Amino acid sequence: MALSSARAWVLSVNDRERLIKAAFEAKENTYSPYSKFPVGAALLAADGTIIKGANIENASYGGTVCAERTAVVKAVSDGIRSFIGLAVVTCAPKITGAPHIP
């Protein structure tokens, strides 16, 4: 059995913060008029580049593209194929009567 050449990466606190901030920035470019559920994603490439993506909805549900896929397609089409982190964010609505979870 061949050994995998995968490498384990650990994200620094700074890289995590950058990635999450970028995902929130990406969420601002969502097109989600049907679900009203904006999603942003950010990929951290091995070279430190951050690639952002947002969900793009279509009246035909099958034509909808999720934020993660948008980010991956953008990265791969630019020749980036090695990633070490992914952040995905949204803004979930508050549910009336739901218990508070700290």
Describe the structure.
This protein has 102 residues and is α+β, with helices and mostly antiparallel strands. 25% of the residues lie in helices and 20% in strands. It has helices at residues 13-27, 67-77; strands spanning 39-45, 50-54, 83-90. It has a 3-stranded antiparallel β-sheet with strand order 2-1-3.
Largest sheet: 3 strands, antiparallel
Low-confidence region ranges = none
Radius of gyration: 16 Å
The number of helical segments is 2
Distance between the termini: 46 Å
Strand order of the biggest β-sheet = 2-1-3
Coarse morphology:
globular
Instruction: Give the topology string: H per helix, E per strand.
Output: HEEHE
Structural class: alpha+beta
**What multimeric state do the chains show?**
single chain
Give the integer mean of the pLDDT values.
88
- The tally of strands reads 3
| Share of residues in strands | 15-25%
Helix content: 25-40%
